[in-house]
Write a structure and sequence with these properties.
The chain has two domains: 3-65, no CATH class; 70-116. 68% of the residues lie in helices and 0% in strands. It has seven helices and no strands. The chain has helices at residues 14-26, 31-45, 51-57, 60-63, 67-90, 95-102, 106-116. The chain is elongated. It starts with 13 loop residues before the first helix and ends in a 5-residue tail after the last helix. 24% of the residues are buried.
């Protein structure tokens, strides 16, 4: 199904094209396919349309059920935890405090510490 690519086509009104694609996807009966196609539609639409438009048109509740969407969110959360850990390491925070605050493992925090202080082993 090529519906997620519709908004990237040469249409006069990309928002309306996205709306039509989202309506078509919303009619699917298989929840997994629906979620994955809704996520793909939203991601591809973001290449052409503003985030606000995509969020207004694409059903986030369905999109959030997609494994691809969840993987993107998990990656973003992990990256945020790493940034927090790096900031805490730069301020001299204890590794145990960092692991308990971020949920990162001791090994992950020590690897981040090596990035900051490569000369320390």
């Amino acid at each position: 199904m090529l519906v997620p690519f519709a908004v990237l086509g040469q249409s006069a009104d990309a928002e309306e094209t996205l709306r039509q694609a989202a309506q078509r996807v919303d009619q699917l009966s298989d929840p997994t396919t629906k979620a994955n196609l809704m996520a793909a539609s939203g991601i591809l639409a973001g290449l052409k349309l503003d985030k606000e438009i995509v969020n207004r048109v694409v059903r986030r509740d369905i999109m959030q059920e997609s494994s691809v969407y969840r993987a993107i969110v998990e990656d973003a959360q992990t990256e945020a935890k790493r940034e927090i850990a790096l900031n805490l390491l730069r301020r001299g925070a204890d590794i145990d405090l960092i692991t308990s605050s971020t949920g990162l493992s001791i090994d992950e925090v020590q690897q981040l510490q090596q990035q900051i202080n490569p000369s320390q082993n």
